[in-house]
Amino acid sequence: MLIRRNLVVILLIVFMFGPDMCGTQTKKLHVILSYQGQNYPIKKDLQCETDKLTHFYTFILRPDASYSVLVDNRERESGTMYTDWDILPPPKIKDTKAKKPADWDDREYIEDPNDVKPEGYDSIPREIPDPKAKEPDEWDEEDDGIWRPPKIPNPAYKGPWKRKVCIHGQSLKMILTFMC
């Protein structure tokens, strides 16, 4: 059963699943979905185990229309209802007449046009004098000159300023359309 409450779409799907071993010819694994009184067998040819041991078969149908078939808790087959059954229409139907506008921007991300360089950003030095450094006791200004502490990387310096990056409006529209 597939229930998508966010789209208010409720599909009641009944399924028949399991191995079919009749005589010496038929040794297959059935996965048949029944929707609105019509049976839809899986398009793939799934073989069941043929040894004399007991096996554990599992069919998982997820809300996103994907599925998995497990035999003894190991995935044997997986896919989607869109590709492996004729029960659902394809998720996207290509419109052959649709064309991308000439001014369409393909970039997924762009620089944020509202991002402004902070005032004084360019005046932040790369290095600053080490605040923990002390003038050596032996330092003589007459002989050695004016003592200057060694420089260390400035934790406030973040490199050359760059605008923040945001998702492009056209990409965002496509994502929101796909999600709805």
TrEMBL record:
Start and end residues of each stretch annotated as Disordered: 94-153
Q: Where is the signal peptide?
A: 1-22
Keywords of the record, alphabetical order, are: Calcium, Chaperone, Endoplasmic reticulum, Lectin, Metal-binding, Repeat, Signal, Zinc
Q: Which domain of life is it from?
A: Eukaryota
- SUPFAM superfamilies listed in its UniProt record: Concanavalin A-like lectins/glucanases, P-domain of calnexin/calreticulin
Q: Which residues form a coiled coil?
A: none
The record's Gene Ontology biological-process terms are:
ERAD pathway; protein folding
A GO molecular function term, named singly, is: carbohydrate binding
| UniProt keyword Oxidoreductase, yes or no | no
- Just give the chief location class: endoplasmic reticulum
| Compartments reported by the entry | Endoplasmic reticulum lumen
Biased composition, Basic and acidic residues: where in the chain? 94-104, 114-136
Please provide one cellular component term from the Gene Ontology annotations of this protein: endoplasmic reticulum membrane
Give the protein family.
Belongs to the calreticulin family.
Provide the protein name: CALRETICULIN AND CALNEXIN
